Amino acid sequence: xxxxxxxxxxxxxxxxxxxxxxxxxxxxxxxxxxxxxxxxxxxxxxxxxxxxxxxxxxxxxxxxxxxxxxxxxxxxxxxxxxxxxxxxxxxxxxxxxxxxxxxxxxxxxxxxxxxxxxxxxxxxxxxxxxx
Length: 131
Ligand SMILES: [Zn+2]
Fold this sequence. Notes:
This protein is mostly helical. The chain has one domain (11-130): Up-down Bundle (Four Helix Bundle (Hemerythrin (Met), subunit A)). 69% of the residues lie in helices and 0% in strands. The protein has helices spanning 11-39, 47-82, 98-103, 111-130. Helix 1 runs antiparallel to helix 2. Mean pLDDT is 84; it is low at 1-6. Bound molecules: zinc ion. Zinc ion binds at residues 89, 91-92, 94, 109-110, 112-113. Zinc ion is lined by residues 89, 91-92, 94, 109-110, 112-113.
């Protein structure tokens, strides 16, 4: 039987991954909603309070930004399942190993492309430092 990803996954595995992705999406959306209150600037009381709440707010903004980027990947993976393109690396078009998908179901890249992307990012950071 040829599966959705060209035979890499069984229908049961695919169902499990879809359920895992949907659960993850629900959890991420809840997290974002929980932190939304922190993003609102409260009425300024005394300067000490104000300073600590601005640090909290800064952390919350960074936290929510990170969650949003994972949410984006999770939704992308769910779209790919719907379009029957799930399990294929978005960079090189090769099949992503089922083991990797079970560990990180929202991973858009195969292992070698992920490594390249990380090297590229590190390289970009390095050159930014040297500028
Ligand atoms: Zn790849």
